[in-house]
Amino acid sequence: MAVLLGIDTGGTYTDAVLMDDDADCVIAKAKSLTTRPDLAKGIGAAMDAVLADSGLGADSIAMVSLSTTLATNALVEGQGGRVALVFIGFDAAELQKADLADALGDDPVLFIAGGHGHGGAEVTQLDLGALSAGLESILGELTGVAIASRFATRNPAHEVAARDLVRSTLGVPVTCSHELSQALGGPKRALTAVLNARLIGLIDRLVAATETHMVQRGINARLMVVRGDGALVSADLARERPIETILSGPAASIAGAQWLTGAQDALVSDIGGTTTDVCVLQGGLPKIDPQGAKVGKYRTMVEAVAMRTFGLGGDSEVSIAGGLAGGLTLGPRRVMPVSLLARDYPDLVHGALDRAISLGVAPSESMCFVVPQFTTAPAELDPREAAIAARLANGPMRWSDVVQSRIEEPALGRLVQRGFVMVVGVTPSDASHVLGRVSDWDAVAATKALTLFAQQRIGSGDRVSSGAETLAQAIIDQLTKQTSWALLETAFAEDGWDDPAAMARHSLVAAGLKQHRGTVRLDAGIGMPVVGLGASAQSYYGAVGKMLACPTILPDDGGVANAIGAVVGQVAIHAEGSVTSAGEGAVRAHLPEGPMQFSDKDTALDALRAALTEQATQQAKVSGVQEVRISETLDLREAEVEAQTLFIEATLRVTARGRPRIAR
Which top CATH class is 83-194? Predict the structure, then answer.
């Protein structure tokens, strides 16, 4: 019996499953809380629990595969390491394209002379002297550097030369844009490279934590990681290209959903702690997003399943909506539930909540706390950030004790954005504890926190709610509404409607969902089943299906669908290049090592095909595939001119596929 271990590390929970590869069934499953900053604790707890539940030994594990939502969550929440962009052959105006300036924030940019033309010929010589001086000026705590050169997909020479200099000068991981995508569009490639560089430290820690516990438990097996298109890649490749793991968890959940339900046509919705991810399943397969994966506001060049990601989950922050009517909003920020902190720090939480309740009308931050996500104080903090970090050196504190003046609030926000601290607040998970739907954490603390929240005032001067239970039901109702909006938006987009987000919230759609009957008859709903996944789907999605007038499928193992999907996929390595016209009687093949000129397109395509096949095959073998299957797609652009066929351009994509070798 070959046993496969699937692990999914999400923002709140880390799931683990053991599957019998021969019998194609789940042997055991387990959950543990995701632990930050030391991910190894949560991963280790899940691995230990699932092995204990199965009664199997570590030597029975033939392969370990990992999926994660950490990269997705980091981008949605605006977190990640500090990076620099080396922008070769571009000017400052290019930063305003593709949300590149927004993604960079305050991180440094070096504008360096250089770059190539569309045909791959050098337009301007690379100014290595200016690059060297620029690197000296940004020495500091960088987690990575992104390099993007004009038309690097036609000739990567300047990116490669800059990479070598950056590595020797700074000694940090470097991401070249041409390694992530062969598509044109410099700013979008630069954005993808910047986000990749920002995620390197996060994914490296995740992979290292998994590998460390595998060694400690004596698991001698290959470690794979799920890519955003659902394929498996080696852990080493995931370390180099962490951007390809965005939507890894959702992609794994799609594979898990199909395996669990056999559904052919459905909307698959996976609710986690931070996000809700929705995908359309057609003919048993998810679509690939032709424009590149979009996470939050950023459209990347990463190939991934066509997934819409919403900042809505069980741990979404509950806020009061503006205006006289008030109301509630959930997300997009994730906070730690009060009930979870109270489980681990009962004296701190109950003491603070009891004092606040005794006041009668407590300030809004009275149910908020701050939790450090570091073991030693981070370096490179400004004075206000350092002061906050020093106060948190001994563990969680009340928000009012951490932020001692209004001018310190932005400093706390920066620490949250960089992942150094986490805010605790009221969430749908707390509401579920108040209503008795779940009992994992401290329900008494959740009730106290919601009691305080209900006492706050809306724009009209009225209280938010009459009490904890009434507020808890309102929070769950708001979660149902926002989940329904997410599903409707996905459905409208799939049907080709303009502005699907506005359509999902349109008053006519709302009336149709309520089956309005009057002079006008209105009906609305989802025209296919909804598959609900995630630990809390069983609690929430029955009401969602009722609101949308559609069947809901809630598989028994839906809470660990991501971990199941992590081990049912295959390796798929893509390599892409192009051949372009170089004038009469000449064509140019843009090979991985640089452009090469040929006399005809067929010879050039053969050379490109051989190079790409070799590249994809070698990466597939590194990922453990022994029996490699090669497929290709060719996009040929030609024109008819005076009864003659004129070659313009060809794009060739070679894919190497196969199951990773299962060690026995």
Answer: alpha beta
